[in-house]
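Q: AB hydrolase-1 domain-containing protein, please. Structure only.
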Amino acid sequence: MSAENLAGKWTRKSGRTLFDSITCVVFLFLDFLDAVLCVVFKLVDEFFEGNACTPCYCGKAGDKNGENKETEMLSESLYGRKYMLRNMGFLGFARKWRIYRKKKDDRDGSVNEGLMVNRWSDCGCQSCVSWMKKEYDQKLHVVVKNLPQVGRGDEAAENVIFLHGFLSSSSFWTETIFNNLSESVKDHYRLFAVDLLGFGRSPKPNDCMYTLLDHVERIDKSVISPFHLNSFHLVAHSMGCLIALALAAKYPKFVKSVTLVAPPYLPCAKDGATTSLMALNTFAGKTLWPPLAFGKSVMSWYEHVGRCFCVLFCRNHRIWEMILKLFTLRRELNFMELDLTRHTHHSAWHNMHNVICGAAKLMDKYLEILNKSRSVKVCIIHGDHDMEVPLDCSNNMKKKFPELVELNMIENVDHTSVILGRVREFAKSLQHIWASS
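A: Structure for AB hydrolase-1 domain-containing protein:
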């Protein structure tokens, strides 16, 4: 080996070592900061709310109380996240404080009644708390377009349910695809764009665990049952893909087609906990670069640090919107800019872990149900430059279920531009899928 090659190899190795060392130090500090913020938020929650009714996940899995549907559906990534300082004695005060407060609450008989609660750290504007009105029945917010013409009857209409992705809302579909479908769609299809639980104008109760089953049950209650849908198509993006597959597996005889855009799919390991933790590391692994990936890792691994950011940005989203309008000289902001901050940390945290990570171990089961039904068509659309959800996710699904899955890989587009950068083409492909199902 020449001296020049040897020097280059040594430089690269030294650079990686330095970068790994800096990464270790940064996340070690975040470990400590999150443990301290755990106690801080407990005290502040109790000061403003009287009783901190929403549990955090700083302890061990053994701290869970009882076994019911909610605890069974909790993702292993909530308690299985490895902290360098978690098991060290001098940071045990966070868990001890929580146990002490629980015992005190049990003695005092303190309980949290009902779901109609808005946390002090969440925004209280009319849009964000619209679900808390007395006449509201806790159903999801649904935008319905193209109702059948009078006299045609519900049987004459094809139904399509649209599910958005993480930190988004029904606007992702209504502001893009709905406006680019052909005129013939208005006569043959009625469209339902759903605000998933915790996002948009749908409920954001602070003691709901936001599991995959919660989403399926709410969609059933808000769309399928009230509109008496006996057949429908599903279109979903990112996180919504997992919910769409669970819904399709529940109603395999009702679903005509499932269109998945960048599905966060991982082949299930023998141990479900391994699959959930693998999903966390795949979609939000600890890294300092690029900055967007670092932000995802902080918000996904550190519950209380992430809540600090949400208190600053999400709770005060109206102020940030006003500042953004002032600097950009725009009267109206893009729907994606609005959706990004109009959620709560509690909803984002549980959807990230219990849906994206926790549901990963269930996807093969749902796909097997659809594969056996032989009546559902699953179409995947994925950009080859997607940095959020690796293309391997779609390739693995196609490889494992070759007869069920149809994969359409789009060149030179990423996670967002696979739809927003080619809206008309995407709308045409949807119409083709529906017509051929």
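A: Brief note, in case it's useful. The first strand starts at residue 142 and ends at 145.
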